[in-house]
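Record type: monomer structure entry
Structure origin: computed from sequence
Chain ID: A
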Amino acid sequence: MFEKKTILVTGGTGSIGSEIVRQLLLQNPKSIRIFSRDESKQFLLQQELYEYENIRYLIGDVRDKQRLLYATEGVDYIFHAAALKHVPACEYNPFEAVKTNVIGVQNVIEAALANDVKKVISISTDKVVNPMNTMGATKLLSEKLMSAADYYKGAHKTVFACVRFGNVMGSRGSVIPLFKEQIRSGKPITLTDKRMTRFMMSIPQAASLVLKAAEYARGGELFILKMPSLNILDLAEVLIEDYETTYGIKFKPGIREIGIRPGEKLYEELMTLDESARALCNDEMFLIPSSINDKVKRYEYDGFVKAKYEEYSSLNAPKLNKKEILELLQREGLSFS
């Protein structure tokens, strides 16, 4: 699908964006444009991918529409991974979140339409479902903007779709690297609430879902990977036990409960009951057609069947036990052993 194509990845030096780039490189694209605002991360990625001559590194911010218009010229596909994603940062700087997660998305949409891009796939988060924080609210707006763009695009052929993620294991600023660093430095693991549950997906899984969404997308859809959930307390205890077994050292600081941070939820939801009413699924993902675009009723998705009428939340979903959590960490290279 991507062979000999020109692709723009916004936020292309981030955990997800850079993995999208790595997986795209396996498909022999004509050119990949990595668009991000951090020159240091661009330098590090250039060192890693030095042997590839079909990568272009563009300094820019999705808040800058003119820069996006230039960056998007001649592009076939856009993968939009740029975002402000940390809940506390967005909570304390709400309009900064609006500038990137809402206005930035609209800039991507308008640049794509202006340059007749074939498909735009935007990355969203489980925090958009019944949002109670700024990050979730702004990302929900970004989903609505993408869906609406596919409705009002007129004669343009550009296809817009979204992918909704759970927590991405090992990504920058996520809980597993934090817990591991606290253990290594001999500090207590800081757990916000022992009842907290989360969906978990690996970085390669997340990137693979994005590429598959581009293949399936017809217009305005939302794609959700089926993924396991776990109790964060179990995750912390597994990491402690793994550290003690691997190094033969007793971890004495233990776990300290510090209380839920501003905007944080005890459990996350990936799909509402109303969304499930129109959802389709296959073995690995859910596909939710657009609710405002009547054209999608004509689309057929090979291999997808009607999904069950039920909400999809980390509170009610089956949980991984400790043995399964350890196996998952080892498989993804995130354990101490």
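Annotation 1: The mean pLDDT is 92.
Annotation 2: DSSP finds eleven helices and 17 strands in the chain.
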